[in-house]
Amino acid sequence: xxxxxxxxxxxxxxxxxxxxxxxxxxxxxxxxxxxxxxxxxxxxxxxxxxxxxxxxxxxxxxxxxxxxxxxxxxxxxxxxxxxxxxxxxxxxxxxxxxxxxxxxxxxxxxxxxxxxxxxxxxxxxxxxxxxxxxxxxxxxxxxxxxxxxxxxxxxxxxxxxxxxxxxxxxxxxxxxxxxxxxxxxxxxxxxxxxxxxxxxxxxxxxxxxxxxxxxxxxxxxxxxxxxxxxxxxxxxxxxxxxx
Length: 243
Prior knowledge:
Layout: H1 2-11, H2 27-40, H3 44-51, H4 55-72, E1 90-97, E2 108-109, E3 114-123, E4 129-132, E5 136-137, H5 142-147, H6 151-154, H7 185-208, H8 225-240
Antiparallel strand pairs: 1-3, 2-3, 3-4, 3-5
Helix pairs in contact: 2-4, 3-4, 4-8
């Protein structure tokens, strides 16, 4: 927390206030409030009560510091070009849910039966998070989403390992059951081995979603969701840099 506050205060110093009513929260308190919001996805009314301020102060703090977090920690977010192409990666997609904005098409995921945005996530064989894509509409199929990221162009050999939803993209995936037939025992054992090796990426996604804003439903205006996702991804990689 101290290291993060130092970075944010250095990159976004608060100008001296010469007139008007003093702000309800210090810079450090605003940053802490914003972090609590993203970690717990608490309502603004609850945060206002916890920090003994009105709800408008909570809203201003979150609106002020969320994009600043994304900007200040941008260098901690790996791009495809930063990844080691000689290492085998585990890839999976996940939905980060939001409210059902009826005027926005493309948010509903038939796979997850709710609205949100699609993220592609990669980790190494030990489960260490190494990359997260930019968000795509929730209706986007994982295979289409991963093609648009450029990840597959960067990893021709060894190819990433993924589930059946990525079949046909040159990745290591389980065997599909043939139409009207059954898998052989060898194919079943192969699928079991693949699924066992893939388990760490599911844990990596679960760890990312301990930032509850990505797990329990985003309530702020939809146009702020991508920058919130970027801020949380940056926070996760910043946190992992101390591990």
